[in-house]
Amino acid sequence: MENDGFGVAAALSGETNVTERFDKTATAMTDYLRYAADSQTAQGELIESVPFVSIRWGYFVVPFVTERFAILFAVLCIINNRKSQNVPLCKSSTLAVLECRYEERLGLLQTIGKDINQIDAGAQKAEVRLQ
């Protein structure tokens, strides 16, 4: 069942263009006041608001330059790190952490400079028992 009425139900159900309805209401009210039997002419000034936008392009220079340098820095980092593609990833191995020793006098974790392959070979030879 379609609601062809102009009531609140039509507006709430989303079937009515509310902006158009308000425009028609404002026009009807203005016409009633303009053309009524007791209407009077009034003199006055019309004030109209006109939006004005001024863009100061100089303020955009710093963000644009910063963005360009950030992109350049990222590209240079990618190019520079391509040289180390064949380096083994010791940070992804838990064996590298197990090889570290705590140095009390320095308060640091230290390790002797073993390669991840040497650490892996040593781990293959070691026997471990859970107690």
Question: What does this molecule look like?
Answer:
By secondary structure, the protein is mostly helical. The chain has a domain at about 90-125. The protein has five helices and two strands. A two-stranded antiparallel ribbon has the order 1-2. The radius of gyration is 39 Å and the shape is elongated. Keywords: Membrane, Transmembrane, Transmembrane helix.
- The fraction of residues assigned to DSSP E strands is under 5%
Largest sheet: 2 strands, antiparallel
Radius of gyration, in Å, reads 39 Å
Give the count of helical stretches: 5
> Biggest sheet, strands in spatial order?
1-2
Point out poorly predicted stretches. Answer: none
Taken in chain order, the helices and strands follow as HHHHEEH
> What level of helicity do the residues show?
40-55%
Assembly of the depicted chains: single chain
Global mean pLDDT: 80
Per DSSP E runs of 2 or more residues, the count of β-strands stands at 2
N→C terminal distance: 79 Å
Shape, per Cα inertia axes: elongated
Estimated structural class: mainly alpha
